Predict the 3D structure of the following.
Amino acid sequence: MGIDRCWNLMDFRAPAKARLPKPLFHYIDGGADDEWSLRNNTTAFEKYQLMPSYLRDISKVDLRTKVLGVEMAMPFFLSPTGMTRLFHHEKELAVARAAADAGILYSLSTVGTTSLEDVARATTGPKMFQIYILKDRELTREFVTRCKAVGYDALCLTVDTMLAGNRERDQRTGMTMPPRFTLGSLMSFAMSPHWTWNFLRSPDFALANVVHRVDALGGGSMGLVDYVNSQFDRSVTWDDAAWLAREWGGPFVIKGLQSPADAKRAVEIGASAIMISNHGGRQLDSAPAPVDCIRPIRDAVGDQLELIVDGGVRRGTHVLKALALGANACSFGRPYLYGLAAGGKAGVDRVLMLMRAELERSLALMGKTSVGDLGPDDVISKS
Ligand code: FNR
């Protein structure tokens, strides 16, 4: 199926599956343990209904909003995802350019395959860098300096990945560190000629933001993976997050929080926003759906934090529900990766265009002309 036959975000999953070798598709698509949280992140939106109002002038609909001090054309943005070069040769640059063209924020992962400087050079759109507090604190501090030097708008600390979740699909396909491919998964590379051709003609896979550190240590490409794995630090605490927020001094986001108590700690250490997220169901299976965490967190922190709902967002109506429940914006990961794998930048462009169309249509059908008009009276919770 071509991307022009995709009519909603999840339609891109099938062409992505057809194009990608099996281990890579399941790396994107899968979650932890029984994948309950992965499924629940989306189905939880069904607990909420949108209340329409009629006979209002809806001839003009305005989706613009501001989060993290950034003007965005729509109330959602693209979550950070690592290793993008594996999914399409146009890699992060395609996603960042599509986001800039659509007027929304792009987030680059620490374990991205394009350097933060190259992304900054490729687009003038708003950008956020996703960071981990690594054992190598000097490298962590270096990221902050580099982001400041090239004008990143925000820094986002991911806190739910101190150790990797149990992703059984990756075990089965051999998408592990180091890779252990089965005959079946190796065959799937042979059966994905389009992907294989594009990979072989420019095999430029590198974790571009950390590669210099590994080179300095004398490591090769396998050394890189070992290096990154060895850098995850389970001893990181709120004190370290506070240190990083001070080092950065600009809009600071903590990604991966779900409890009101943690949201209050985020306020205390000077965060500007949190991404309410369970890492798309890839870490703690049984963690609650982000959409269900909005109300309790908003009640706990009032207006002291911007809330971004990350996980399971697949429809314009999902974004509208999240905003009505008290979120400032949403973000998503897999849908744009499916779009990228299916069609490069054109695929991501179409994902963003479809989301825009859904948002405009659904907002107008609710009788609203601006996303800022959404509030608690516009959403009903199913008992
Ligand atoms: C991710 N995610 C992620 N998060 C992060 O902070 N740093 C990272 O490097 C990555 N890498 C990554 C790779 C892939 C393939 C996926 C699917 C996800 C998590 C991501 O930012 C986001 O939280 C989820 O994708 C949100 O869930 P949905 O929208 O995919 O349902």
